[in-house]
Write a structure and sequence with these properties.
Elements (H helix, E strand, L loop, with lengths): L1 H6 L7 E2 L14 H11 L11 H13 L15 H15 L8 E4 L2 H9 L8 E7 L5 H7 L3 E6 L10 H11 L4 E8 L11 H13 L3 E5 L16 H7 L2 H4 L4 E6 L11 E6 L3 H11 L7 H11 L9 H27 L4 E2 L8 E2 L2 E2 L3 H7 L3 H13 L1 E2 L1 E2 L12 E4 L5 H5 L1
Parallel strand pairs: 1-12, 3-4, 3-5, 5-6, 6-7
Antiparallel strand pairs: 2-8, 7-8, 9-11, 10-14, 13-14
Length: 422
């Protein structure tokens, strides 16, 4: 991807579909979110009567939770206690299952911490993590960086990128011939595939991971973005506790969420909840987070804003709700129309998307073209689109895919996306 950008600097990018940054897509920030964070950064704004009452009250509450009432002060390595408690209350509301703030960790790199923890085992046998293919494009790099072996399991494209249990069993048995598999990574809603798991699929994955003694790492970052009418986001933790004490009392899991859903991805913060993890391990995670000293405080406050939006009766509620509905309606329309357009392009096919903010089309190019170019079809398609149309998209996952399978990855958050594509 970086090579495609660098090799085409002579032609200025006119459109980019490679990023999920809503600011690049020209979406307006939520007024409430921006006002609260602005007042936290510059408290003099709290004296500004033009800000709604609920904004000023919320900003003051968040500032009171900060050391020295300033976003410039360090926090505990695991995050502000106020924000951790807010996350615990959010999870409890969402799932109907108690969550303790002591099991919540705020970080700009919590997934990396968990992978480092998994990799810290003793012995010469490498550690493996069962990883979906396709997966988010930074995950293989993170596993490589921490010395963990990526053990691929293929999602079933013909069933809308569903998790296939036979494939999971094949993957874990294959992995045991060359490493020690310790965890399985799940993305729900799928990144970049856009699939959303149903209740039975989640139950099957939990049973599989429990039987194989694998730690479950579940990325639930795009939980707010489900657009298929027949689909809904259900958290893994909620399903786990519905399965009864046999699983809910012992099954080990870590779930992740971030402020990417807020549209403020540049603030770099997210949270991790640990479920049924031994206290000694939890302490070790906290210790490892100390290497980052403190997650940026503005990002931590943004988490609190994301999970505690204005309530009915608040001054900002009406405007906030209209803004969010507009964004979701636009994304749903984009999702449907972009799939239609892509499926009408020569050599391109795209599975229907249920959630998330990516499309993952398959591309087929003439064999002779690829032989002459001496490059895979996905990167070649991206390069030619950049050179010919000044449109930037991302190559698809290349590790673990069957030979002859080529994709590209693009987001569909840009308004008027069909006009942009045409």
């Amino acid at each position: 991807f970086n090579s495609i950008k660098s090799e085409n600097t002579k032609r200025q990018v006119q459109l980019t579909f490679s990023s999920t940054d809503v600011h690049i897509a020209k979406y307006k920030n939520s007024i409430y979110d921006v006002q609260v964070l602005s007042a936290c950064i510059y408290p003099e704004l709290l004296k500004n009567q033009t800000f709604p009452v609920d904004v000023r009250q919320r900003a003051q509450t968040l500032l009171d939770a900060c050391g020295e009432r300033s976003v410039g002060s360090y926090t505990d390595s695991s995050g502000l206690n106020h924000v951790r408690q807010s996350v615990a209350e959010f999870i409890t509301r969402r799932d109907g299952v108690p969550c303790s703030a002591s099991n919540v960790f705020i970080s700009s790199g919590s997934q990396r911490v968990m992978v480092k923890l998994i990799a810290s085992g003793e012995g010469d046998v490498p550690t493996g993590v069962l990883t979906p293919v396709p997966c988010r494009h930074t995950l293989p790099m993170m596993l490589d960086f921490t010395g963990v072996t990526l053990e691929p399991y293929m999602l079933d494209k013909d069933r809308g990128w569903a998790v296939d249990m036979n494939e999971l069993h094949r993957a874990v048995n294959t992995a045991r011939g060359r490493c020690q598999p310790k965890a399985i990574f799940i993305s729900n809603p799928g990144n970049p595939t856009g699939h959303v798991q149903g209740r039975k699929s989640i139950q099957d994955v939990i049973r599989f991971a429990a039987a194989e003694r694998l730690l479950l790492l579940v990325d639930e970052v795009y939980q707010e973005y489900v657009f298929e009418d027949a689909a809904e986001f259900i958290s893994y933790k909620k399903i786990l506790f519905e399965m009864g004490p046999m699983y809910s009392d012992t099954f080990e899991m870590a779930s992740f969420h971030s402020i990417s859903s807020l549209g403020e991805c540049g603030l770099r913060a997210g949270y991790m909840e640990l479920v049924n993890i031994e206290p000694g391990v939890t302490h070790f995670v906290d210790t490892m987070l100390c290497t980052d000293i403190s997650t940026p405080v503005t990002g931590q406050l943004a988490i609190d804003v994301m999970i505690n939006p204005p309530k009915p009766g608040d001054s900002s509620y009406h405007t906030y709700t209209k803004e969010k509905e507009h964004v979701k309606d636009t994304l749903k329309w984009n999702c449907q129309k972009a799939c239609e357009v892509l499926n009408n392009l020569p050599g391109v096919s795209c599975q229907p998307v249920m959630g998330g903010i990516y499309l993952y089309p398959c591309v087929t190019l003439p064999e002779e073209t690829m032989k002459q170019a001496k490059v895979e079809a996905g990167p070649l398609y991206c390069e030619q689109l950049m050179q010919g149309q000044a449109v930037l998209i991302g190559p698809g996952c290349t590790r673990g895919l069957p030979a002859g399978t080529h994709h590209f990855r693009n987001s569909w958050i840009k308004e008027n996306i069909v006009v942009c594509i045409i």
